[in-house]
């Protein structure tokens, strides 16, 4: 029985540390058997046990009997690198994670392109072997039931293109990378068969799990070819600057290379390196953006000076003969993939760079979106061709934000949710919404069980399930501050239930960049449905629900701070079923940052804008039927706002209302309605309290807060009124 044998050995870990790497071995039967994780100290091959790590440069294990594990595959040293068929399995404790901790360390920003180049020096050493798979040690052990992710490299063939993303992806996927040796001359059809065989074996082993193919440039052609040949297998393709546009490349590499004198070939990789990537963005990949400009410049200078000497390895990765071969291979790969696009049934996510000097990636993304049946696109306007090596891009974040991460055939945004990492938290709330939060500077208060109002969130229960019920400010502007405050102060993930349109094609524009709506999904938003609310409460989550929904967030003139709720007590019985604690809350501040100049009625009087509003409404989903009254309105529009000198946002979380043990009592409609009206009254009282007390806040104006920060506080927190 044949087996896949992969070592969790980083081919470059030994270069970055004084310690010898430790490794684990995963052996998987190709006959549909199970996957076994062997201990890090014992490897059994054909009955021979290797105790303790026996490696050389982190990439070679030799058991003394002719067999070697090289670059992640078991190689027979005497028979041209073929895979050995017999591996003895030994069961050990299933070493996988069931859940990720909130704000976990994903390693983002700790690696740069220099780590890729250093690793490439080791892995490209000629061994006469065929293309093979390896598992980077930095990926570690994944979550339970994680899907497989196969990385298909670009022209370099090294397989380390995800070097900056290994640690993050390794928690969510079983990562395997394809390595194509420098002097290997396998045809494109041969490479397709290698990947296809692995895909089919994985599908046979776990038919209910998706298989992810991440293809960069040339690898994207390979992924499309495999998907076209296997339409019945559940595949998710992540295509990074796909080389299907190679025939339209603005840089004719092949003619230039063939005409280049041999003496100048060593210069060519440098030129290609600068064309395919942005050296500055590559060097900034591990620089903390909060550093003072002087320190950022010093770190950038250090990274660039360290990077430039390592670039010489490019001439070893792709010697002239290899580069000519692979460019011809790429030409045939692009033609093969383009001729079969109609047969691709897989989910596809295309990531395209705006500054790709090698390929017309932006135009190609548009073409693929119109040619493929199930395709999303995200643009990154400041990145070059080698975007996976550049600053500002976290591949796992993009997969999560585009709702492409799942562990089974159907996407479940509750059970498939991965909590945000620390780097995602910093990016979302410091870089993406940081200026907005700084300008609005939320002041948060809560109510203790004895009714006392205190600063902060001490009155909010730490243990779930908790259901937050409150007022939806104009355009939902309060959400960013609310989620951020709970993460910072209580390390609690608040899961918001949002309008289904946030997850629909309405949000997919013709030139979509990774936007705030994507970040909302990364931070836990789910469509507002009864089943999602059921699942969240059953998992004891902290859930954010707005009974007023879209109608309240897109209210008309004169309706500020008016609760537009349905008559029926929609959430009360659900809360009681799980014994959830209901926390009513009020929030004010929308009138301190903008004036509503054009509402729905105004827009419908303007010829061009009313057509746009009608088009939006025709595509919008209806959450409630018309029997629910005014709150069921689907008037979807973008209001016209006149900005003001920013004031401040205020939150007051009322006294928690416990429903534990009240399930039977609240089965009675009248009792449920009374509790519903009580919650609504508490929200109204919180709003009235904040509107009155904010007049006492000496730092309500951004001008006063700026002066305070300049003299007293380097931190975001600024005092407010005394509760």
- Major beta-sheet overview: 9 strands, mixed
Task: Tell me the helix content.
Answer: 25-40%
**Overall pLDDT metric:** 81
Rg (C-alpha, Å): 28 Å
Note the beta-strand portion.
15-25%
Number of helices: 23
Low-confidence stretches: 1-96
Structural class: alpha/beta
Measured distance between first and last alpha carbons: 73 Å
Shape: elongated
Number of strands: 26
Q: What's the gist of this structure?
A:
This protein has 723 residues and is α/β, with parallel strands linked by helices. It has 23 helices and 26 strands. 33% of the residues lie in helices and 16% in strands.
Task: Give your account of this protein's structure.
The structure is a single chain. Helix 2 (166-172) links the parallel strand 10 and strand 11. The protein has 723 residues and is of the alpha/beta class. Helix 4 (218-229) runs parallel beside helix 10, helix 5 (253-259) packs antiparallel against helix 10 (320-338) and helix 12 (395-401) crosses helix 16. The N and C termini lie far apart (73 Å). Residues 1-96 have low confidence and may be disordered. The strands form six sheets. Strands 16, 17, 18, 19, 20, 21, 22, 25 and 26 form a nine-stranded mixed sheet that branches.
């Amino acid at each position: 029985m044949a087996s896949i044998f992969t070592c969790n050995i980083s081919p470059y870990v030994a270069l970055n540390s004084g310690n010898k790497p430790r490794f684990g071995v995963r052996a998987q039967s190709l006959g549909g058997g199970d996957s076994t994780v062997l201990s890090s100290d014992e490897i059994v091959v054909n009955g021979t046990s290797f105790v303790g790590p026996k490696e050389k440069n982190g990439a070679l294990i030799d058991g003394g009997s002719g067999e070697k594990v090289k670059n992640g595959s078991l190689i027979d040293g005497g028979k041209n690198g073929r895979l050995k068929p017999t591996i003895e399995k030994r069961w050990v404790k299933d070493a996988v994670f069931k859940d990720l901790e909130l704000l976990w360390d994903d390693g983002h920003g700790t690696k740069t392109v220099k780590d890729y180049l250093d690793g490439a020096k080791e892995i490209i050493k000629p061994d006469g072997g065929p293309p093979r798979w390896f598992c980077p040690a930095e990926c570690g052990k994944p979550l339970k039931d994680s899907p497989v992710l196969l990385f298909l490299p670009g022209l370099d063939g090294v397989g380390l293109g995800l070097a900056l993303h290994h640690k993050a992806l390794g928690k969510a996927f079983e990562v395997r990378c394809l390595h194509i040796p420098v002097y290997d001359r396998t045809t494109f059809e041969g490479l397709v068969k290698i990947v296809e065989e692995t895909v089919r074996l994985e599908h046979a082993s776990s038919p209910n799990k998706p298989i992810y193919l991440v293809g960069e440039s040339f690898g994207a052609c390979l992924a499309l070819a495999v998907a076209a040949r296997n339409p019945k297998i559940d595949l998710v393709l992540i295509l990074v600057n796909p080389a299907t546009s190679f025939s339209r490349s603005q840089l004719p590499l092949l003619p230039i290379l063939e005409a280049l004198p041999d003496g100048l070939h060593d210069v060519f990789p440098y030129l290609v390196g600068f064309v395919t990537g942005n050296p500055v963005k590559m060097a900034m990949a591990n620089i903390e953006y909060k550093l003072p400009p002087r320190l950022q410049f010093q770190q950038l200078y250090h990274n660039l000076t360290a990077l430039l000497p390592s670039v010489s390895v490019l001439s070893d990765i792709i010697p002239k003969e290899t580069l000519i071969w692979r460019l011809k291979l790429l030409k045939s790969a692009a033609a093969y993939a383009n001729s079969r696009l109609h047969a691709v049934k897989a989910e596809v996510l295309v990531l395209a760079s705006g500054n790709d000097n090698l390929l017309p990636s932006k135009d190609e993304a548009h073409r693929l979106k119109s040619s493929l049946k199930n395709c999303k696109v995200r643009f990154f306007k400041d990145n070059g061709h080698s975007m996976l090596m550049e600053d500002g891009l976290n591949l796992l974040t993009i997969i999560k934000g585009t709702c492409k991460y799942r562990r089974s055939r159907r996407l479940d945004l509750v059970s498939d949710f991965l909590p945000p990492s620390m780097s995602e938290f910093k990016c979302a709330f410091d870089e993406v919404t940081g200026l907005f939060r700084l300008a609005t500077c939320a002041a948060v208060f809560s109510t203790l069980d004895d009714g006392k109002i205190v600063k902060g969130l001490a009155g909010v229960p730490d243990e779930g399930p908790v259901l937050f019920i409150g007022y939806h400010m104009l355009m939902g502007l309060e959400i960013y501050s609310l989620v951020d405050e709970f993460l910072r102060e209580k390390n609690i993930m608040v899961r918001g239930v949002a309008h289904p349109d946030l997850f629909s094609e309405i949000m997919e524009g013709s030139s979509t960049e990774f936007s705030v709506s994507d970040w909302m999904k990364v931070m836990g938003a789910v469509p507002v449905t009864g089943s999602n609310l059921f699942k969240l409460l059953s998992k004891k989550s902290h859930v954010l629900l707005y009974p007023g929904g879209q109608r309240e967030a897109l209210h008309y003139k004169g309706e500020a701070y008016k609760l537009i709720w349905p008559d029926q007590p929609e959430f009360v019985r659900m809360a009681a079923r799980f014994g959830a604690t209901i926390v009513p809350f009020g929030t004010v501040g929308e009138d301190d940052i903008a004036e509503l100049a054009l509402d729905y009625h105004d827009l419908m009087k303007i010829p061009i804008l009313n057509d746009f509003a009608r088009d939006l409404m025709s595509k919008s989903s209806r959450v409630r039927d018309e029997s629910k009254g005014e709150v069921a309105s689907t008037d979807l529009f973008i209001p016209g706002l006149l900005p003001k000198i920013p004031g401040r946002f205020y939150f007051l979380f009322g006294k928690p209302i416990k429903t534990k043990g009240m399930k039977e009592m609240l089965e009675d409609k009248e009792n449920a309605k009374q509790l519903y009206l009580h919650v609504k009254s508490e929200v109204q009282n919180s709003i009235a309290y904040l509107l009155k007390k904010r007049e006492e806040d000496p730092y309500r104006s951004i001008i006063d807060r700026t002066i305070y920060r300049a003299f007293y506080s380097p931190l975001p927190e600024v005092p407010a009124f005394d509760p």
